[in-house]
Amino acid sequence: MNDLNFEEERIDFTPIILYMEYINLQYNHYLKENFKEITYGDSTYLMNIFYHENISQRELADLLFVSESNVAQIIKRLEKKDFIYRELDSNNKSKKVLKLTKKGKFTVFSLLKVIYEGETKFLDKYGEEDIKKFKLMLYDYSNIAAQP
Fold first, then answer.
1. Is 98 helix (H, G, I), strand (E, B) or coil?
2. How far apart are CA 82 and CA 132, in angstroms?
3. Of 117, 116, 65, 110, residue with least CA distance to 83
4. Would you give the DSSP letter of residue 83?
């Protein structure tokens, strides 16, 4: 992807969300080139199933701000590709939770490896305290942005 090449004074006036979108576009491009079986959207679902153990389809839909029918379609496709499976919740037999298969876990670990390698290159010039503060700021921003 080409450099953004904003003039320095424009950097201050560019919304954070635009930079985040550029990062997402670069990640999406990388996935297309290197992970033929999954899309950017698939990776989002797989990562959230990994990080939110025992999540249901409804909870996943709420988390990702999409309809339950949208989740159902993607879950069905990910099941066919053997990335995930559904299992009865041990605490609530009327609820099914989503789980990663071995293939799904391997894919998530592969994605995380690539993501952490990229982050390491980017964050190499910053101190541990700056990195922690930056991540906390992004976390706070993601929570504020999610509220109406």
1. strand
2. 36
3. 110
4. S
User: Is the model more confident about 68 or about 31?
Assistant: 68
Helix (H) or strand (E) holding 88: strand 84-88
In three-state secondary structure terms, 51 is helix
Determine the pLDDT at residue 2: 56
* Beta-bridge mates of residue 87: 97
Query: Taking the complete model, does pTM exceed 0.85, yes or no?
Result: no
Query: 83-107 burial string, b = 16+ CB within 10 Å, else e?
Result: bbeeeeeeeeeeebbbbbeeebbeb
Q: How confident is the model at residue 1, as a pLDDT? A: 45
Q: For 75, how many CA atoms within 13 A lie in the half-sphere containing its CB? A: 24
Per-residue pLDDT tens over the stretch 98-128:
999 999 999 999 999 988 888 888 889 999 9
